[in-house]
Amino acid sequence: MNALISTAVFGIFLMISGLFIKSKQAIRILAISGVVAAFVLNIIDFRQYGASATELFHGMLSVTNFGLLFIEIILGCVLVYFLLSGKDLANIGHYTGEYFALIFFILCGVVLAATYGNMLMLFLSIEIMSIPQYILAGSDKHNLKSHEASLKYFLMGAFSTGFLLMGIALLYGATGSFDITTMNLAGRPIDAMALAGIILIAFALAFKVSAAPFHFWTPDVYDGAPTVVTSFISTIVKVGGFVAFIRLFHIAFGSPDVDKHWLLVLSIITAATLIIGNVTAVFQQSVKRMLAYSSISQAGFMLFAVIAMNVLSWQGILLYAAAYSLATIGCFAILMKMKDYTYDGYNGLAQKQPLLALMNTIFLFSLVGIPATAGFLAKYFVLSAAVEKGGLLWLVILAVCCAAISAFYYFRLIWAMYFKAGDCQVEEHAITPAFKSVLALTALLVIILGVWPGLILAWI
Amino acid sequence: MGIYHLLWLIPALPLLGFLILAIFGLKMPNRAIGIIGCASIGLAALLTIIIGINFLTSPPTGNFYQQTLWTWFSVHGFSPAISFYLDPVSLIFTFVVTFVSFLIHWYSTEYMRGDEGYPRFFAYMNLFVFSMLTLVLANNLLLLYLGWEGVGLCSFLLIGFWYKEQENCYAARKAFIVTRFGDTAMIIGLFLLVKNFNTLNIQDILTKAPSLWQPGATTAFWAAILLLGGALGKSAQLPLQTWLPDAMAGPTPVSALIHAATMVTAGVYLIARMHVLYELAPVVQLIVAIIGAATLLIAGFSALAQRDIKRVLAYSTISQIGYMFLALGVGAWSAAIFHFMIHAFFKGLLFLAAGAVILAMEEEHDMFKMGGLRKKMPVVFWTFLFGSGALAAIPIITAGFYSKDQILFFALASTKGSFWLWLCGFVGAFLTAIYTFRMVFVTFFGEQKKEVHRKPTNSIKIPLIILGILSLIAGFIEIPKAWGNFAPFSSLMNKVMPQVQLAAGMENKEVLLEVITGIIALLGVYLAWQFCLKSPKVLYNFKTTGLGRFIDKFFFKGFMFDQLYDIILVRPVVWLSKIDKRDFVDRIYEAIGNLGLLLNKIFSRTQNGYLRWYVCGLVLGMAVALTIILFV
């Protein structure tokens, strides 16, 4: 488990390094090399684990190649994030080392989420992911909205953690086990205690991935937190939540006589998430807030992977994690270079910064799901998974309609960039050739994944 | 196998050229742009020739080579592969596409000199060649469709290349919309094929189809006719031919490459590639033949009355593709592809030569304002003459004779042919000779009406000469059976395509037919000379009579198809949408929109910033869900 160790060690290392290293530049480079190191070390790990789970630490962790591949995707996305937005992260305030350290702790949580084999580890991973987020959301100390976001997120998060613990406790009461593989709910009648446990856990996780009706915190927090932090928590952390979600429900609650109990509730949650996310996003004026709602609606699509439960949904969530994270990180990186965060602030960007506008268009295409981008295949896989599962056709049709709605608010931005005359203000000095090239490579990756998903899927 | 592994490079090189030009084009000097634009195609052409020679000297087992690069995705057993398929048919198409494109790119370096859109032009052209090669090499209908739409996009972009003039934009839009009718039919056809075969792999479909469908089966009929719809749009055949004459608004090299030599024959390729389907649907195959025959006649008559040199060529292109469809319709697959190849040579040549004339005449398109250019532009004149000879199928010495007479023979002699189909082709051949040489005499003979403004340079002359030579000699690789047993082209094709079935007692009529068609072509040339050079008064007098004026206008407007479509399609739609502005259906959509607005308001109101409210929502959701799960 090189990834777990390296992210934890680097997190601690970076936290201390703030004491000795004063240069923000140096800390940023240190952090980037940390991610690269974790990336490489994780590849080395890859050979040792196969499709069937390997138990580590007395069953606390259960490692598969799926989990490692997921971690690899996450680390790749974090690398892109650091390269694109690392400077903005370093410049939130004075405590550069700590911001990066918190990111690494979150990564540590994501690694646990992809490999936990025990309910306690699930709880740990969710909390390790969450607590640094509360701090990061409030890291802009001179901004009242940032404080508000942090406090709201913390209170709501504490609430949902209560659900999670209660659910785990009830489930333990019903089965006498914390281990997700040996919990063995199948093959006997399910009592109300176990069911209530499952549902409470489902809700706690739905809260973490901002599914409706537990999404209320999302727009406020995403809008209030510093943009560079929003970029991170709406992508990496969200898909980290999803991997915890999908693993628990497939492994522990996945057998047909169990899933019939919770399938309807999760389907309704999915439908509500899709509708609320998309419909509310339509009339937003601020691009940042639009992206917050868009992250809710994309969560609706990712929920398909949870409820479908077959091979396609595993592949789908991998693709979705990469497609969604890359595109959203790219969109946020460009957003951070704008002085005005409203739609009108993008007017005429194509004239001023043709490359930025083009790349943004590619990212938005991917988020809508236009063929030949990664987003198309990701959506295609999760929806196909649901079709294969059967009985969910109404939900698939609803999702396709919602994707059509989403085209409206994504394309509105393209319209503003290309077809509206205007004098958008960008931070010219921050748009360096290096930034542009990383952005172009990210966009290229989005397209490559769209025509050659085997780049990821060949590994499992 | 060695060299075959490089097959993927043939489409990849133009793509690379496109990417370089699209990204860095604006910052590069024109010379570098020209070199990159030509080199990418030139290398692809060279590679094609090397692979082609390999293929001919030592054919791979089964006469095909398949290269699968990767599988796009694999869901429910449907796994479209990015895979190329080289067999004699796609080899010929690839060769013509790369080779002719290279010559036209070379020519364009001079033709487009001084145009502000220089990098854009070469970027589009390279993208076009990439798409066209994807189309012909695809082993999968999905990939083929990608190329198909790609060439459609490039055609649109290049017709409207000089977008500052509104007319050009209208022409581009027209081409796009008219072909869209066909493409829509085609994609429905693809859905039908997926539904029946659960694959879009062309070879799988072709091998499975005969066991799945009886000859004449209804599904086979629908699949074949829907694909035919796509082919009709792309190849500008009746009833979707109206876009091609207007497409001449683009730069002349574009007309040569896209709207004459390559893209418009994509329909021929599609039908030839899917020939098994058409043999299972004899009715559709008959329709193909009839459409071909009708189109070649209508376009031939229309060409007689045109004044714009490029429009004459455009109608002749429609007409010649009509011949190819006729050949496909009577099952003469090899003859259709042979005529495609020869046509690409001479029609590319004619357009390029016409372009040289247009350059010299300062963008003058009306050939009646040219005249007498024979002495001033000898190279252009002679090559144009060769091309015209091939187009008019002048016996023995031109390539067009061999390819067209083969089609005419099969139109009569094939079991699927008939006297009437032959007659249409025969009359068409007569018309072709007349309008072609009318064009030659009006443009290059008689008195000179305008000074030569820009003399052709070597980059213009050399491609013309190469194509001119090919227009003369390329026909010798397919000598009529009656003359001797030398037909390497059809024996190559017949390795993968079924041979044409001759009706009883037809074998020995070939010579007779050749003599007749040869005479009719020469007669056409004579008539053109008589009425255009010797005594133009006769024709002029006829045109001033009432009937003459009507016929002239009727032909000039291409049988009034535009006007017809305007009356039966455009105006009713506009009228209906005008009176039906606020109808019932509209209300529904408005209601959906309003519902969205209302929901948006409600949802936005829930987002009020109060934490207690949010927690309330959370708990409420929880309560509802627990109720559902525990008590329902």
Feature tags:
heterodimer, A: 460 residues, mainly alpha, two-stranded antiparallel sheet, 19 helices, 75% helix, B: 632 residues, two-stranded antiparallel ribbon, 26 helices, 2% strand, globular
Describe the protein's architecture and organization.
With 460 residues, chain A is an all-alpha fold. Chain A has one domain. Helices cover 75% and strands 1% of the residues of chain A. In chain A, strands 1-2 form a two-stranded antiparallel sheet. In chain A, α2 packs antiparallel against α3 and α9 runs antiparallel to α13. With 632 residues, chain B is mainly alpha-helical. Among the domains of chain B are: 232 residues, no CATH class; 48 residues. Chain B is built from 26 helices and two strands. Chain B has a two-stranded antiparallel ribbon with strand order 1-2. In chain B, α16 runs parallel beside α19 and α17 packs across α21. Chain B is globular, with a radius of gyration of 27 Å. The mean pLDDT of chain B is 87.
